[in-house]
Amino acid sequence: MLKYFIIYQEFTNLKTRLKDVASASGVSLTTASLVLADKGRISEDIREKVKKTAHRLGYFKKEKRERRSKDGSRNLGILINIDYEWAFIWSFIRPIIDEIESTMKPLGLNTVLIPIKRSFPAKEIQRKIAEARVQAVIALHYGTEELVESLEKSGIPVIIVMNNNFQDKFYSVCVDDYQGAYEGTAYLIKLGHTHIAYVEAERPDLPMLLNDRFIGFRKAMEENRLKLSQDSIIRFDMQNMAELKKKLSLLFGSRDRPSAVFCLDDEIAYRVIVFLRELGMSVPEDVSIIAPGDVLDYDQHYYPQITTMRINTTYMGSIVCQMLMNRITHKPEDIHVLKVKQQLVKRSTCREISRT
Description:
Blueprint: H1 2-11, H2 18-25, H3 29-36, H4 44-57, H5 62-65, E1 74-81, H6 90-104, E2 109-116, H7 122-132, E3 134-140, H8 145-153, E4 158-161, E5 172-175, H9 177-190, E6 196-201, H10 207-223, E7 233-236, H11 241-252, E8 260-263, H12 266-278, E9 288-293, E10 307-310, H13 313-330, E11 337-340, E12 343-345
Parallel strand pairs: 1-2, 1-3, 3-4, 4-5, 5-11, 6-7, 6-8, 8-9, 9-10
Antiparallel strand pairs: 10-12
Helix pairs in contact: 2-3, 2-4, 6-13, 9-10, 11-12
């Protein structure tokens, strides 16, 4: 609580006026104004002194203070994708939103959800953000270089969450997909599985996620000198479940069928389990299954209890808040990227098999 109290003091000191900065710096009001506007012929020593004083006192330029709602409140915008194909992740991302809201509200920031679709042009999303009059933006999964650069240039800090595509360009809080896939696959191998299939869906908007998870899977297989054939790799279109069922039928209809499957996420794993049952196979008696995520709500009785590499979204929300407040109050220059490690959660879709 102490760190948040310190941040709160810095962040809420918005009544600091230009004359306070001038007085504390030992310069005239005009000089302070010129320095903070990056104008005038003023020595570098004076410029540095005034800027440091302004930063210490928590002085914000007028245009930044004006980004308030009509009722005077300050808002934090969260971009939420409302495309149909992303509806299944709501229970997954909700803890992130809850954590952000509960942490930021005592610090004077209201959380505003901004619904978007991937088909929206950047200008339309910018319009929605402008209408929300936000001080900062958190983008869940979504992100385009054009949009983020535009917001940053206008003085609105952006944190991209669970999207590794821009980790070398923008502030990001991501999942360590490589390590999660590696450890999940290693767990199956430890249970005695040597023929493991890999199932993923086409996700053109998240190429790094597909890349990192597959590389982690392949690395674990290679380290244990296990064969990885192309026949054991299934990729399908999420809008075409018949394609997935057909490919699973071919794979598990062969004599040398896998004893385990690593899925891109547990939503895909759920579909795989349904189709395997239709093929007359049981999980985990015939096939073991593991997947990253906890995208599904396991409190609902109709979901199978899938063994996962769990992503702690509540913890992610906490990290997002810390990164954002650091940006608002301290304005660091270097890009920061934080990755959250996945944790194995043993449920009921994996079993140990004989090594004979």
